[in-house]
Amino acid sequence: MERSLTHIALFAALIAVLGLVPRVDLAAGVPITAQSLGIMLCGTVLGAKRGALAVLLFLLLVALGLPLLSGGRGGLGVFVGPSAGFLIGFPVAAFVAGWVMERTTLPAFWAAAAGAVIGGIGVLYVFGITGMAIVLDKTMSEAALLGLAFLPGDVIKAVVAGLVTQAIARARPAALLARA
Amino acid sequence: MLTLTSPVDTPLHRLRAGHKLGALAVFTFGLFWVSAPLVLSVALLVVAGLYLAAGRRFSLHGLHMLRPLWPFVVVVALWHLWLKDPASGATIIMRMVTAVAAANLVTMTTRLSDMIGVLERLARPLAPVLPPRRLALAIALVIRFIPVLSERAAQLAQAWRARSGKAPRWRLFAPVALAALDDAETAAEALRARGGAG
Predict the structure, then answer these.
(1) Transmembrane ranges (chain A) (predicted)?
(2) CATH code assigned at A6
């Protein structure tokens, strides 16, 4: 009970910290924020249910008015802006990533990277693109064109999510709750 | 930790948080049903007026919070100029800016403690599944551990630079995630030792 609670809270904090890290240069000349990496890790490390709850807790703090989204954004405004769909998709993305991690017997890297791609990119983009289509009053394909800008960064993040999950599986096999 | 509540005191700060959130919900819902440019510009003027009434510093802070919208404003504006349909482009931009500015206004004029008060009332029906004390504890844990974890991340980055001279890039993420997992275990033990999470 306490273990679930503290893991959910600590990973909500981790999402915030990864958003505060000001633009980590992942590869030379590709500056991206690591916040969506945090979303992927919630699923691949904590598993579907706890991962989704950690993301929900994080979003709750954002809605209460803490500037925890990357770039110091936060408050209620972000939930009606053009990126709102991505925020609503975050918990679902973590859930799907965790589900893939739990239900497959692939090695940690492949399971986590696949989960991050399916959840953190596939599912998340459906929500995000729908949100942009509604707020900007565009068709789905026009909105998808705008969303493509984020794709290269997110593919890199999915690979990193796989590497980080693999590192945790090696260093603390018992702490990888998605596989516990 | 800093919140987005404005330190500039305005009459809006003294309104009940629940009332502000209710009014915001109705206003936002209405905004997405209206497409008459005249009505939208009145709504935008009303919101802008509320900001301006609170003074220059408050208004500038409000403008600063709208900054992430500019890329979208530019894209929509160019798109509709290219389609030779500036009127509907203006409608979309006005609606988006008004909705976000109104929501930010509520955030900027409501203290965190009042927001948590509203949350406690809203979460009351969930009590059998999610005891209010547990939710409050989870929120407190996140707020407490954000500075702890970011301090840890900074130390790990320094240690890395001391050894290699290069920036750690993505290699920092695994140790930071491990630190979060270890802190979670320790905090769970500490909670159990103090009578559990309730």
Answers:
(1) 51-69, 76-101, 107-136
(2) 1.10.1760.20
